[in-house]
Amino acid sequence: MIDWVLAYWTEILGFATGLACVALAARRNVWTFPIGIANNIVFVVLFGATGLYALAGLQLVYLGFAIHGWLHWARGVEQDRLYVARTPRRAWPWVVVAGVAGAALLWWLLSTFTDSTLPLADAATTSGSLVAQYLLNRKRLENWYVWIGVDVASVILFLATGLAITAALYVVFIGLCVYGLLSWRRIERGAVEVPESAAVARG
Predict the structure, then answer these.
(1) Residue 188 pLDDT greater than 60, yes or no
(2) H, E, C per residue of the chain
(3) How confident is the model over 46-60, as pLDDT tens digits?
(4) Nearest Cα to 101, choosing from 80, 79, 128?
(5) Residue 123 has pLDDT above 70, yes or no
(6) What is the pLDDT of residue 168?
(7) How far is CA 202 from the centre of its chain?
(8) Angle made by CA atoms 28, 72, 151, in degrees to the nearest 5
């Protein structure tokens, strides 16, 4: 009974912090990263307890990615709230190879050394999430397409493992990702008016 209660409230807390994290990212707010770190800690506990070891490990990797993204959004060119960039064509082969290779490696590790309940799906969503997070850290518009694909697969994965609340969270994530994509596309196309104070600050 205690384990069920703990899992329930962990899902609720993961729902709240995850929702805030994605909403802030869609609005290009740097607070997405500290909120994301809190979300990672919650999901380490939840995924570890349900046998999704790659996703649990992913949360630890996300801590490093959160620091990377936080630094870029706070100090780099990405700190400009109106900055959005496309991923260069020359980078896409490396992005795809990294995603596929990461998924294959994780699948082998999970199948060989763990009792992961769904090793292929676990590995694929993990690797895809890392790719999407890197693109988000650099404010690449295409991060939202990758996130949408990952979130659709994650809904199926979580339903299969009985995490109904987390599955519902990822359905909401899909909607937020669509919002983020549309919002970032407007900025990338120059359809968002730059406030006079921001224009003066940039010279």
Answers:
(1) yes
(2) CHHHHHHHHHHHHHHHHHHHHHHHHHCCCCCHHHHHHHHHHHHHHHHHHCCCHHHHHHHHHHHHHHHHHHHHHHHCHHHCCCCCECCCHHHHHHHHHHHHHHHHHHHHHHHHHCCCCCHHHHHHHHHHHHHHHHHHHCCECCHHHHHHHHHHHHHHHHHHCCCHHHHHHHHHHHHHHHHHHHHHHHHHCCCCCCCHHHHHHHC
(3) 877 777 777 787 788
(4) 128
(5) yes
(6) 86
(7) 30
(8) 50
Q: Whole-angstrom Cα distance, residue 143 to residue 181?
A: 8
Give the end-to-end CA distance of the chain in Å, rounded to a whole number: 61
Residue 23 CA to residue 45 CA, distance in Å, equals 23
What long-range pairs does 147-151 form, CB within 8 A, spacing at least 24? 147/173, 147/177, 148/174, 148/177, 148/178, 148/181, 150/125, 151/177
